[in-house]
Design a protein that fits this description.
Order of helices and strands: HEHEEHHEHEEH
Strand order of the largest sheet: 1-2-3-4
Largest sheet: 4 strands, mixed
Oligomer: single chain
Mean pLDDT: 87
Helix content: 40-55%
Low-confidence stretches: none
Radius of gyration: 20 Å
Number of domains: 2
CATH architecture of the largest domain: Roll
CATH topology of the largest domain: CBS-domain
Amino acid sequence: MRRQIMPHLVHNQALYFLQPEDSVAEAVALMSEQHIGAVMVVRGGQLIGIFTERDVVTRVVNARRDPDATLLSEVMTEGPQTIAPGETAGGALELMARLGCRHLPVVDGEEIVGMVSIRDLFGSVREQLEQDLKQRDALLFDTTYGVG
């Protein structure tokens, strides 16, 4: 069975949203407190951006910006790529590799339903590969074949 984003990877997930007017310091505090690598930025319930650990390093720290005075709208990635809940883990991993990103918001129509990370996908793809190898080994090395 090929694992889909929902329900195999994303289920009962706590979602964290911030507004574009929130500060980088607020985002970093939330990310640290919740042990997450990215937050979604919304306006009126609609996804308008994503702010990640990489943004903290490249757009804030490296640019010597003040996290308390810098708004998310100034440093977030606007209009982030999203993924549908029915997409497979492998498809999501390929998309992340092509885009060079580590997090994808999961959107069902207009509704934000989750966030998937490369760590989530790696674990899922690894489990799938292990299952595939076990099935292969069972087919190749099954000693009961032809015994009757």
